[in-house]
Amino acid sequence: MACMKLGSKADVFQLEGQSWLCTTGLPSDVRVEAGEMSFHLHKFPLLSRSRLLERMIQDKDDQAKSVLSLHDLPGGAGSFLLVAKFCYDVKFELTSTNVVSLRCAAEHLQMTEDYGEGNLISQTATFLEQVLNTWEGTVQALETCEAVLPFSEELDIISRCIDSLADKACEERGWPQRYHHSPVWNGIHSSSEPCSPAGDWWYEDVAVLNLPLFKRLIDVVTCKGMAPSRIGGALMLYAKRHLPLHGRSRSGSFQERTHESDEEQRTLVEEITELLPNQKGATPTRFLLELLKVAMILDAGAACRETLERRVGAQLDQAVLQDLLIPNTVPLEETLYDVECVQRIVDYFLDMVGDDEYEGEEEQSVEGFDSPPLMTIVANLLDGYLAEIANDVNLKLEDFVLLAASLPDYARSLDDGIYRAIDIYLKAHPWLTEQERELVCRLMNCQKLSIEASTSAAQNEMLPLRVTMQVLFFEQLRLRSYMAGWFVVSDTLGGGSNERPSAVSSVAGGGGDQSITLNEVRERVSRLENKCDSIKHEIRKLVRTKGRWVNFYKRFGLKVRTKSFDLKSDAKSPTNQD
Length: 578
Prior knowledge:
By secondary structure, the protein is mainly alpha-helical. 54% of the residues lie in helices and 6% in strands. The protein has a domain at 3-194: Potassium Channel Kv1.1, Chain A, CATH 3.30.710. It is rod-shaped.
């Protein structure tokens, strides 16, 4: 840390209780009151250096021992002790931690060159220039500015410190030496320490600043064109230092406390939210969600919470399930998680995508292309969230249905995820009526279930009977299409040949470089037929638990059949002709 040595004499000041005594051997003829301290000094050293002290002493010249009150002195007793040492030419050091208060005190006391060459104003101003050439010194000087407001503001010290820091932080290559220093001169000593060339090297240092100063620094680096990702990183580290971003205990209190009050923390959340860069991805989604949770706990303003929800929605594809589980902080709400908040976030995401993009993506889906990656990622995330909250017995049906139905059908290439969430919800809410269960099941498309999910759904007693029949019907169509492909392979092979032509590889469902024998084809077809028989057995078992077989078929306009499963006869059934 840079310093500048002043004075040439040994220390003559001695502390006794709340008083500083000057032990020069001469009796004191003036007492200065500064803060809670008293200074028993001599008139001549003071009036010879300060116009203000000269005038105050002259006003009380008729008193045997003048008493001067300096309770409004910047820096208080600490600053005046150094001022007194300067007046007595006692050795002391100017540092980056005391130069601001001394510069303000010297200005207040009018210690100009008219009262001696090299007076305190010029000495502190010169040293402050050197401090502003160093990163560490500037940070320390800026920290001390708050204690001497508004003097530090009026002398433009704060603006100069912030501009100096902003210039160094904005350098493309990073500040080459974190504690850069100029050559030693006039007794100034300084140290240097290499710093990381990464763009985040300055985050930790400026996190010690109070909020108003930090906010001004961020405003300046933003105006100077700093990359949004770097600004977001600085805001994130500052928030982590001053806010409890790790949730709350069951009692509702924060598990980690900072020295700021709830009101200060609320203000801090709102200010940081206002400073967040607008660019997508400049601030990690996880941090935004942590900040949103704290904002809800602290009951931050509605505008703050809405801004955070919009920013999360704009980059919802970058979120993970665990971070999306936002605890419910609304009084009298019985649900564990704030589902309405997530619903708003999803709505903001959909607004960001836009209707025009929806139409283009839907056309691609219809033409056989894969679902858009962005929408697919969000769909998978939402399905996982629905499965996580579905087990909450207090989760209302309309909230579950509304959230699940938020995304368009083409967003999901498979509906296994939404089926899993529906299954959990139905099991956790066994009191739902038949109509309510059918409403929930309309959220999934039975044609988009995998074989594993279809098998599970066909045996799921919580599903309405109509839904079970739909699952079985589409599964049967899928099996028939699959087996028809194998029959094409069999006809193509012909004559008992054991070699499989490459031209039918795609029909058989294998890769282009694979081969398969006719015996293997027959074996697979046989296994599929056995699976169909198993499904028929399961449906008969299911119908016996729900009502008579004849009534069941009449309900769906089907003919009663008792013979075993057969491909040709099934192909003519009314069900498959629909």
